[in-house]
Amino acid sequence: MADFDFDAVVVGAGAVGLACGYALTKRGLVTAVLEAGPIIGEGVSARNSEVVHGGLYYASGSLKAKLCVQGRRALYAFCDSHKVAYDRCGKLVVATTADEVGRLDAILEQAQANDVEDMAHMTKAQVLALEPELKCEGALISPQSGVFDSHGYMLALQGEIEAGGGAVVTSTPFEGASPIAGGGWSVWAGGAEPTTLTCRILVTAPGLSAQAVAAQIEGFPKETIPAGHYGKGVYFRLTGKAPFARLIYPPPIPGALGTHYRRDLGGQAVFGPDLQFVDSLDYSVDPARAADFYSYIRKFWPGLPDGALAPDYAGIRPKLHGPGEPQPDFRIDGPEAHGMADLVTLFGIESPGLTSSLAIGEEVVTRLGL
C-alpha cells in the first residue's frame, strides 16, 4: 500500500458493499468502506425479508442463479463460524389452485438446473402433514431456504474488515473519483470532515444510488449506466401466533417473487413484500394496502382472522426494469464493460442480493483479476 492511503475503497456499507470489502480483505488488501448514512446497512439491507434464498427460479447461466446458490452455501458457513443466528426452516412453494400445479414442474426443473440441493415435489397430503393450516393442491419443498440475522451478519463482516487493518466509515458520502495517472484512484469523501483518499482499486456497491455514484466518476462512460427504477414493497405483521414454521411462497409473479410468509427469528409472522413502482424514497406503509394482503394471503391461509394484520415496514429495491418489463440479471461491471482499470460498478443488486452477497464479493475480486 506504499503509494496509496488504502489498497481498495468500497462505496456503500450495506451487505453487498461489506461483503466486497471482506473479499478484498481476504486477499490481503487494506480496504476502506465508505457509507453515506450514519450506520451500516440502513438502506436496502435493513428493509428486506432476511430470507436465505435457495436459488430456485433464476435463469440458467445468470449471475443470479450462480451467485445465489454459491452465496447461500457460503452464507450458512459464515454464520456458523461467526455465530450469526439463522433458522434453516425450509420453504414451501405452494400451488393454491389446480391450474398452478403445473407451474411447480417448471420451477423444480429450473431449481435442479441451478444445482439447488434437496428439492422435491410434495402432495397435498404431505404438505398438510407439515403445515395443517395451509391451503394448497401441491407444493415444492426447498429445505435449504431459511431466515437469518442480516444485521448480525453485517456487523461480522465489518469486524473482519477492521481486523484486516481496514476501516468502515459512516456519515461519509462518496462525492466523486478520478483516475490517477499511472494507476489508482483519487476519491473525494464528504461529510463533517471532507477528505480525499487515494486507492489502487475502487468498487461501487451503493444500492439505490448506484447510478448517481457511477455518474460521479470522472471519465466513466455515461452510456453504460443502466436506467434505475424504485420497486417499493410493504410488509404487514401478524398480531397473534405464527401459523406456519416454514417459509410459504406462491409461484412467482412477473418482476418479483410475490407476497410471501415468513416466521422471523423472534417467532413472529410477517407477510410481504408486494411490488409498487415509485418515484421517491418513501418508506411509509399505507394501511389501506392491507385489503390486498388479506385477499392474497387467504389464497393459501384461509384462516387469517379479520383485523390481524398490522402495518410493519417498507423497503425499496434498486430495479433495472420498469413496470411490465422482464426482470434482468445483476450488473457487475468490470473493466471489460466500462473500460476503466481497477474499477467494478454494481447495479440492480436486489433480491437475491443479500443471500448472494459473499459470492458477489468473490465475483468482484475475480473481475479485478485478484
Report on the architecture of this protein:
The chain is of the alpha+beta class and 370 residues long. 28% of the residues lie in helices and 26% in strands. A hairpin with a 5-residue loop joins strand 15 (260-263) and strand 16 (269-272). Helix 1 (15-26) runs parallel beside helix 9 (353-367) and helix 2 (63-82) packs across helix 9 (353-367). It is elongated. The mean pLDDT is 96.
Task: Give a quick summary of the entry.
With 370 residues, the protein is α+β, with helices and mostly antiparallel strands.
Q: Which segments are poorly predicted (pLDDT under 50) over 5 or more consecutive residues?
A: none
Query: For the CA atoms, what is the radius of gyration?
Result: 21 Å
Largest sheet: 8 strands, mixed
Give the strand content: 25-35%
Instruction: Report the mean per-residue pLDDT as an integer.
Output: 96
Globally, the shape reads: elongated
Which range best describes the helical content: under 10%, 10-25%, 25-40%, 40-55%, 55-70% or over 70%? 25-40%
- The counted number of beta strands is 20
Task: Return the string of H and E elements.
Answer: EHEEHEEHEHEEHEEEEHEEEEEHEEHEH
Number of DSSP helical runs:
9
Structural class: alpha+beta
**How widely separated are the two ends?**
15 Å
